[in-house]
Amino acid sequence: IVVPQEYGITIEEKLNIARGIITPLLRQIGTDLQGNLTGYWEDEEHIFKLDSRLEY
After folding, report:
1. Does 13 have pLDDT greater than 70?
2. Does the predicted model carry a pTM greater than 0.85?
3. Which residues, 6+ apart, have CB-to-CB distance to 56 below 8 Å?
4. What stretches of the chain adopt beta strand conformation (E)?
């Protein structure tokens, strides 16, 4: 069962939900690419976490 509110009903809601998902993902991709290019990682503890506030 798909609940429409999970993905938004209006275009604006859908865009806001998508931004909330894609922004951390793109930030992490950028960090990973930069780290691989330079060999420098700012915070090794959170290298592989999309959201460093979460505990895995």
Report:
1. yes
2. no
3. 49
4. none
